[in-house]
Design brief:
Strand content: 15-25%
Structural class: alpha+beta
Number of strands: 19
CATH topology of the largest domain: Immunoglobulin-like
Distance between the termini: 56 Å
Oligomer: single chain
Number of domains: 3
Bound molecules: zinc ion
Largest sheet: 10 strands, mixed
Number of helices: 14
Strand order of the largest sheet: 10-3-6-5-4-7-2-1-11-13
Shape: globular
CATH class of the largest domain: Mainly Beta
CATH architecture of the largest domain: Sandwich
Radius of gyration: 23 Å
Length: 464
């Protein structure tokens, strides 16, 4: 046993903290719509190995059954024997191999099936003749208990295919094979990966951080123009917050022929250091337009501050196998909407749009408190977009009221910006999600203005 342990230490390596590095290998076979994922780890008793497949991700506010596209799940023992994965009661697989130690689990993901079955075009990975585009959380699972461990990821594809990842964007793409060191499963799931010659990459010059545009398009598209708009958004947010927390950033967009007329396109998703967007061909950016609407980029890039780097309970650490309850979606979305339009884009008339959204909401939405509506939106934000619209509208109008109060009480010396910087700083110091009851005191302290009155107005008399 001792010899075996020694060999495994050599094979798998230990970090200075004694935490094992988990090895992920993702292999794409050219001319197929499948990828294979193998996860190698220090031997564990077979009955203790649970392979979890994400059913949601921070910010998606939805439940997506990615497990439906996972096939040929196999656990491999230290002796080389194989055990078939058995589907559990939730989004996980177990392995029956009594008395055996497992050191690998592997599975296949059918990307064609995923794209066909998920009607939200932005929720699926894609496979084309010369392109594979992968959303981390749609293809990577984890062994329960190892989600906090560092990961070494290796991607393998055809020798001539360039590989790109939002984890470490570069113009100098390796071909055929590439490796990445990743902090933990959350970062792996948060990243995107493109393989193939039809993935186009552009680095935007003169940006405050390395800023990239990654595009797959089935029609003509102008990467420089997308980059120009991205840089405008980034500089606007930098001017507002006074700093940029991302080490680098990638705007990753796809413009594709709709898979069917039931498929939905046009939604974006935020990630720590990137945003993703899948649109139909009509949405492709082709030429310089000084009046181009950049609200979508500002908003999703703005999420790199809030909530990605300051967030309430449920958002992170994230319960991957469910769509966890999140109480603060109105803050995540509404505060970002407010600063994007009122400040970065200087369009204060947007407030009328928020008020209209609230007026037009059905009663079952109007009757809910901020917190109740957020809990409902945790899994159904866009499924019934009246819920989503009401959440960001209420959050934005609350932000506006806070902003007016802070400016009034400080004679314009402080604003909502100081409240948001207070939240960001608090997270930086405390390294955890804030509790619901902590939000108002953090903002009051950061601004020196008692915001309890405004807070209570928006939370009704019952303050749930
Ligand atoms: Zn958003």
């Amino acid at each position: 046993m001792k010899i075996l342990c020694f060999i495994y230490t050599l094979l798998f390596g230990l970090t200075v903290h004694g935490q094992q590095t988990v090895r992920y290998t993702l292999t794409h076979t050219p001319n197929s719509n499948n990828i294979e994922v193998a996860i190698n780890f220090e031997p564990m008793k077979a009955e203790e190995v649970y392979l979890i497949v994400p059913r949601s991700a921070p910010g998606t506010y939805s439940l997506t059954n990615y497990m439906a596209f996972v096939e040929q799940v196999v656990g491999t023992s230290t002796k080389g024997t194989m055990a078939k994965g058995t589907i559990g009661d939730g989004s996980f697989f177990t392995f029956e191999a009594e008395g055996e130690l497992l050191s690998q689990v592997s599975y296949r993901v059918d990307l064609e099936k995923m794209e066909t079955q998920l009607l939200d075009g932005g929720a699926s990975s894609k496979s084309r003749t010369n392109y594979v585009g992968l959303l981390g959380y749609s293809v990577f699972g984890f062994v329960e208990g190892l989600e906090g461990n560092p990961i070494e990821l290796t991607l393998k594809t055809a020798p001539s295919w360039p590989i790109f990842s939002t984890l470490a964007p570069t113009m100098d793409r390796p071909k055929g094979s590439a490796s990445f060191q990743v902090g933990n499963f959350g970062a792996l799931a948060d990243g995107q990966y493109t393989l193939g010659e039809d993935s186009q990459i552009y680095q935007v010059p003169n940006a405050p951080i390395p800023l990239f545009v990654a595009i797959y398009s089935e029609t003509e598209v102008n990467l420089e123009e997308i980059g120009r708009r991205g840089l405008l958004a980034l500089n606007g947010l930098k001017d507002f917050y006074g700093y940029v927390p991302m080490p680098h950033y990638t705007i990753y967009e796809e413009f594709i022929n709709p898979k069917s007329d039931r498929h939905d396109y046009g939604f974006s998703m935020e990630h720590l250091n990137s945003m993703t967007y899948t649109g139909d061909l009509s949405r492709a950016v082709t030429s310089y337009d000084p009046k181009a609407h950049i609200g979508g980029i500002v908003h999703h890039m703005g999420h790199s501050w809030i909530p990605l780097r300051s967030y309430g309970t449920g958002y992170r650490p994230f319960a991957w196998q469910v769509a966890p309850l999140i109480e603060t979606i109105w803050l995540n979305e509404g505060f970002t909407w407010y600063i994007s339009y009122a400040y970065v884009l200087e369009r204060p008339s947007i407030l009328n749009f928020y008020r209209r959204n609230m007026d037009e909401a059905p009663n079952f939405i109007k009757e809910k408190s901020l917190k109740e509506l957020s809990l409902l939106g945790s899994s159904q934000y866009a499924a019934d977009f009246r819920i989503g619209k009401n959440l960001f509208s209420r959050g934005a109008l609350l932000a506006h009221d806070l902003d007016m109060e802070i400016q009034k009480e400080t004679n314009g010396q402080k604003s909502i910006k100081d409240a948001l910087l207070g939240l960001l700083q608090w997270t930086e110091t405390n390294q955890r999600a804030f509790e619901y009851e902590e939000i108002e005191p953090i903002m009051s302290k950061a601004t020196g203005v008692d915001l309890h009155g405004i807070w209570a107005q928006w939370h009704g008399s019952k303050f749930d």
